[in-house]
Specification:
This protein has 287 residues and is α/β, with parallel strands linked by helices. It has one domain (3-280): Aldolase class I (TIM Barrel). The protein has 12 helices and 8 strands. It is globular. It binds zinc ion.
Length: 287
């Protein structure tokens, strides 16, 4: 089954494929262990920065190794690639999925660039899944904000623009701005469920992605899936679990220098957080 097959299955059955970001082998190990135990398909994402750090070829080889050893459908996504050329670079590096994010541009420009990426991808391999985005998230990825974040109404996705974008670009996945935020803010996140429903009713069988899932109350995640979200991104919560576990270990064991000892509790923390999300998204035993 291809990634689009899994996304379509999630759409039909009312659950969400989980997407987690990585920039190292430690995070990937924890995520894959949880998915193996729970029988969940996975999307692993690297943003432009994460991809540069870990290396495209290195990420590809590690994902392939887990696919083979754990018999898991794991798909590698170029997350938030912000130019046509960067997106093409990831296609050429054998990514399974491309998220072209031109959401800061005007709608016309966004449609034009996204179409170009769709054409490039489909000319190479029609099984590669492409995601586009309209509306913008006001916070930066993976920061912890101490202040209350106000979401300006003009940043939210207009359902009719979503419909036009999906129709004209032919993307496989659509990412809206519906009250979601990257990172974790001081205020509790509040998703605009009615807007998700309105967009869902206008985009046919296109799957819909929720970015910035970290820190969203479980009940809202469930409502969002019911309203038509089929793919959910978590990054910050894993990063926090990682940093907390490592800090705690090093505070308690200041003399330790063996990486596999230092990172064992980190892998365990990532595994637990991942398992929690896979259960919440309904993606257990969906392989
Ligand atoms: Zn995102």
């Amino acid at each position: 089954m291809t990634l689009n097959d899994y996304l379509n299955k999630a759409l039909k059955e009312g659950w969400a494929v989980a997407h987690f970001n990585i920039s190292d082998a430690v995070t990937l190990a924890g995520i894959c262990e949880a998915a193996k135990e729970l029988g969940a398909p996975l999307m692993i994402g690297t943003s432009e920065g994460e991809r540069k750090f870990i290396g495209s070829a290195q990420a590809r080889v590690m994902i392939n190794a887990y696919r083979d050893e754990y018999k898991l459908p794991i798909f590698l996504n170029a997350d938030h690639h912000k130019s046509v050329s960067k997106a093409q670079e990831a296609v050429d590096a054998d990514y399974d999925s491309i998220h072209i994010d031109l959401s800061v541009a005007k709608l016309e420009e966004n449609i034009k660039g996204t179409k170009e990426v769709v054409a490039y991808v489909k000319s190479k391999n029609k099984d590669i899944s492409v995601e586009g985005e309209v509306g913008y998230l006001v916070t930066e990825s993976s920061k912890i904000y101490k202040e209350i974040i106000e979401i300006p109404p003009e940043s939210l996705t207009k359902p009719e623009e979503a419909a036009r974008f999906v129709q004209e670009t032919g993307v496989d996945r659509f990412a809206p701005a519906v009250g979601n935020l990257h990172g974790i803010a001081a205020n509790v996140k509040k998703l605009d469920i009615a807007r998700i429903e309105a967009i869902r009713s206008l985009i046919g069988d296109t799957t819909m992605v929720l970015h910035g899932g970290s820190g969203t109350p479980d009940e809202q995640i469930k409502n969002a899936i019911e309203a038509g979200i089929n793919n959910i991104h978590i990054n910050t919560e894993l990063r926090v679990a990682y940093a907390d576990a490592l800090r705690k270990f090093l505070n308690e064991n200041p003399e330790e220098t063996t990486p596999y000892k230092m990172f064992a509790p980190v892998i365990e923390a990532i595994k637990q957080k991942t398992a929690e999300k896979l259960k919440l998204f309904g993606s257990v035993n969906r392989i």
